[in-house]
Amino acid sequence: MDGIDEKIMNGATESCCNVNNGGSTCQKEEKILKCVQSLEIKDDQNCDDEKSFEFIETTELTVIQRTKKGKQLKRIDTRESTLLDKSSLVSEIFVRYPKEDIDKEESLGGFISTIRRSDGAFLHAFCSLEEDGIFAKALHLKNKDILVSLNGIKILGSFTHDNADVVEMFRNLPMSKTISMVKYNRRSDKFTTIEFLLEIASEEIIVKEDSVKLTNDPPMVAAIVCPRSNKSLAYTNGQLNLRNSGDVSSNCAHHFVVTKTLAGYYLAYTFQVQIDKSKYLGLKGERLDVIDKTKGIPMFRQEQIDRDVFLKPDGYDNKYVHYNETTGNYELGTRETAVAESFGVWIERTDCTP
After folding, report:
1. For residue 66, what are the contacts with CB-CB under 8 A and spacing of at least 6?
2. How far apart are CA 201 and CA 210, in angstroms?
3. Which burial class, exposed, middle or buried, applies to 311 when counting CB atoms under 10 A from its CB (0-12, 13-18, 19+)?
4. Which end of the chain is less crowded, N or C, counting CB atoms within 10 A of the terminal residue's CB?
5. Neighbour count for residue 22 (Cβ, 10 Å)
C-alpha cells in the first residue's frame, strides 16, 4: 500500500517479517499486533507524505479470531481508530488444495491488511511476509506492497472486494494455470505484474520452477483526443493547442508520455510532452496547459463517464477538466458542469516509445 516513514521501515517491518519465524504463540501475536498498528493509514494525506503510515498506540485489546482457514485480527474500536474512522483488519493468506476430498490448505507465507480509503473503497497491503514463504521468496513481494489486481480482477479502489473476499480469491487460485497479479511498491513507485504457476509437489503447493515472470509496468505514449471532433491536443510553437489529428500515431507533436503512480492511494497519471521532456500537462489558472517541470509535476486522476474520460487534477476536490465549446479550450469545472455541458477526452495509445 505506501507512505512509509523511516521509523516504520526500520522497525515495524522487521517485526512484521519475523512473525512466523519462531517463538511462542504470545510472542507471535504481539508481533502481529505491531503490524496491525503500523498499517493504520490516514486517507486525508497524500501518498508523498512520508508519514502516511504511523503507529496508533492503544491500551485496548485486539480481537483474534481463529478458524481452520487461519487467523483474523480486528482492532476493537478505540479513540484513535474512531477518530481516524478506520477499521484495521489483517488475515493470513492460504491457497486451497484442488482435490475436493482433501480438506487442506497451504500458507502463501504472509498476511493481507485491509482498510478503507477516504472515498470508502478498499485498500489492501501485504504484511508479515515470511522470509522463506511463497510471497517473499518466490514472488518477490515486499511488506506494504499494495495489491492492485489479481487474475484480471481490479482490487485497488474496489468497493466490493473486502478483506474476506480477497482472502477467498487467493484461496481459490488454480493449479497449473497462469496466475497474474499486479502490485505497487511505493519506495520504487513501480507497478509490477507478476505471472506464475502453482503446482503440487511432494504433497505441498509450490510455485513451479522457472514459471515466475516479473514485468514492470512501463510508461506509455498516448494522444489525447477531443471526442466528436477530428482534433487532439498538440504541443506546437511552444504552446498547447487543439489541432487536426490526422495520423496521431506518427505525429509526435500530439504525443504525451503517460506514467502511472499513486496519489493519496488513488491511481494517478502524469502527462509529459513527448517532444519536450521538460514540459508536462497541467493547469494555468483554470485552463489546461503545459507547465515546466521545475514548477512541479501535476498529477491527474481519471474518471470515465459514459464514453469519455475526464481528467481530475490531484488536489482539486470535485473539479474536472472538460472542453468548453465557447472558448475552445479545456478548462476546469465542477462534475455537474463537465457532464451536463461538455465532454472530456479519449486517450489513445500509440506505438511510439517513451
Report:
1. none
2. 15
3. buried
4. C
5. 8
Tell the residue number behind the cell numbers 498476511, with chain if given: 111
CA–CA distance, 28 with 22 (Å, rounded to integer): 8
C-alpha to C-alpha distance for 229 and 236, rounded to whole angstroms:
19
**Counting Cβ atoms within 10 Å, is residue 68 exposed (0-12), middle (13-18) or buried (19+)?**
exposed
In three-state secondary structure terms, 263 is strand
pLDDT in tens, 8-58: 223 333 333 333 434 434 444 444 444 444 443 333 333 333 222 222 222
> Cα 347 vs. chain centroid, distance in angstroms?
20
Position 65 scores a pLDDT of: 43
What does the block give as the cell for 321? 477538466
Strand partners, 235: 240
Q: In this predicted structure, what is the pLDDT of residue 248?
A: 81
Q: How far is CA 246 from the centre of its chain?
A: 35
Tracing cell 484480471 back to the chain, one arrives at 152
Distances (CA, A) of 67 to 30, 70, 114: 19, 5, 19
Q: Are 34 and 16 in contact (CB under 8 A)?
A: yes
The pLDDT score that the predictor gives to residue 247 is 74
Write out the DSSP string of 11-39.
THHHHHHTTTSSS-HHHHHHHHHHHHHHT
Strand blocks (E) in 58-145? 62-67, 70-75, 89-96, 105-116, 122-127
Let me know: does 136 contact 21? Beta carbons within 8 Å.
Answer: no
The dihedral through the CA atoms of 172, 175, 178, 180 has a sign that is positive
> Distance (Å, rounded) from C-alpha 52 to C-alpha 209?
37
